[in-house]
Design goal:
Blueprint: H1 2-10, H2 21-31, E1 34-39, H3 40-45, E2 48-56, E3 61-70, E4 78-90, E5 100-117, E6 130-149, E7 154-165, E8 178-189
Antiparallel strand pairs: 1-2, 1-8, 2-3, 3-4, 4-5, 5-6, 6-7, 7-8
């Protein structure tokens, strides 16, 4: 009996904690199912304010909206843009919900000013005439990213997305068919 007892005391038992869907949902509710964030890359590099709001549907899906306001005189054509999106979270989303690697589908509604070719220009110059013109465009695209979140509900997000402008006019000199999204954002769940 003595040798059996000492043997059993030396034996290490492995305990595995299994998180149920209910536990994950309760923790997600504690840190919040809504998030507000600011994109610091656009603020520092492009002189534009880019803020976002996201609402978690469940632990692996979310939808949201970002808003961009151009604050400076930069090469950015968009003066104002709204970008609604839908996200699917993968891998780590089982722990907190709404974080880890994600894929998103987005659309972008953009307003701005661009240079457009003027057909009615009557100058004897050989160079084409361009004038400023307001535009509205809609883009569709996809993106991939990663989000980290701590137990206090603060988040950091990296996103890279590509899309296509659907209403592009060929006369616009400084706009392209493609749309690129790159975000480095810090947020807070509530």
């Amino acid at each position: 009996i003595f040798s059996l007892t000492s043997y059993s005391q030396d034996k290490i038992q492995q305990v595995e904690v299994v998180k149920t869907d209910t536990q994950i949902e309760e923790f997600s509710k504690q840190i919040g199912e809504q998030e507000f964030r600011i994109d610091f890359f656009d603020l520092l590099v492009m002189e534009s304010l880019h803020v976002g709001y996201e609402k978690m549907n469940d632990t692996s899906t979310a939808y949201g909206l970002t808003m961009l306001i151009n604050l400076g005189d930069t090469d950015l054509n968009d003066s104002f843009a709204l970008t609604p999106y839908f996200r699917l979270y993968f891998l780590e989303s089982e722990d907190y919900g709404g974080y880890g690697f994600f894929a998103e589908v987005f659309s972008k509604l953009a307003f701005g000013e661009t240079e457009a070719y003027n057909d009615n220009f009557t100058n004897n110059s050989i160079f084409p005439a361009y004038e400023n013109e307001n535009f509205f465009d809609i883009a569709l695209g996809v993106g991939l990213g990663r989000k980290w979140i701590n137990r206090k509900g603060y988040s950091f997000e990296v996103l890279l997305g590509l899309g296509r402008n659907l209403l592009l006019d060929d006369d616009h000199r400084d706009r392209s068919e493609g749309v690129a999204r790159f975000n480095l954002a810090i947020g807070k769940r509530f």
